[in-house]
């Protein structure tokens, strides 16, 4: 269900969506231009950026830091549109295509990955073939399979990486000493500590990744799930997964009668000491929430010994964006060393960069070398040593729908 922020912002951006006379070039024309020509075409325009709106820190970074640079250096107005779920923006673009809106859509850019990217690419909803046009694309290592493939779907010049992320847990060291450090141990811990654990209801992306960890466990390891979707394998592993999740449900917070509706709600439950464990796709959230007073200072992040899932997230420009030139300028800015370093600061966002630091000039690389990790955030090298891959988007979509039908509806 669309939140009030999305509905209000959609009304505003729909009114703003008509292209300016200076920014009506189609994708093919833009792809043939020099970068300086793209920038001049974009100057004085606007860009409607649709993204998950559940983090105040991310919202400030986008609206104030990125929006400020766009305004000051390019005279471009950034309209940030907050979403509760990325599929809201994808469905908006899909509906516009079905209605024949080919050059005056409401959406200029979406923060995206996984099944939502697959939907846009397969549905012809993405503007593609432009990534080499971006000067800062030189800092992206497209030879890295985890960058070149989004949940197993080749990017093929249809989106640009923004950050990398990896799932991690955290607990309060003042409340207990030895947290569960693997999925099997966690499942036992949940039963031994009734009411002290829960996870967000799917389709929340943090809830979905927790469920995928249980799915990997039920499959005997992610190596048994890699490759194209296999219905027979899915049916067997899914049955085991739903049994596991339904078995622990009575031991969850509120006896599993309800699930948090978002990661933000789960964070508040942890802050209120209603649950003992917290997790997040973005490990640096621990440091951010300690510094802003949400989490107790004794919160400590940690990795699982049997691994946690990591991935890359991206930005995408819809095929019918009326402000493609401005969107390209925004994408190039998001890839810049300065913007990526600002995003990596622990008191801003703490997000791991999508660019390859080894490709940067010495002065730019020094920006990252000077960043001090919050001491309570799990060491990225510890996480990287146990990183697990994402499944292809067809798997993740089936798992999400299967949870909704077999666990969430119970």
Q: What does it look like?
A:
The chain is of the alpha/beta class. The chain folds into two domains: 4-163 and 312-379, 3-Layer(aba) Sandwich (D-Maltodextrin-Binding Protein, domain 2), CATH 3.40.190; 166-310 and 383-408, D-Maltodextrin-Binding Protein, domain 2 (3-Layer(aba) Sandwich), CATH 3.40.190.10. The protein has helices at residues 4-16, 27-31, 35-42, 56-74, 87-98, 115-122, 145-148, 183-192, 205-218, 231-248, 263-271, 285-291, 324-335, 337-344, 362-369, 380-384, 393-408; strands at residues 46-52, 77-83, 109-112, 149-150, 153-154, 160-166, 168-172, 277-280, 299-302, 308-316, 352-353, 387-388. The longest helix has 19 residues, at 56-74. The model is unreliable at 1-24 (pLDDT under 50).
Short description:
By secondary structure, the chain is an alpha/beta fold. 43% of the residues lie in helices and 13% in strands. It folds into two domains: 4-163 and 312-379, D-Maltodextrin-Binding Protein, domain 2 (3-Layer(aba) Sandwich), CATH 3.40.190.10; 166-310 and 383-408, Periplasmic binding protein-like II (D-Maltodextrin-Binding Protein, domain 2).
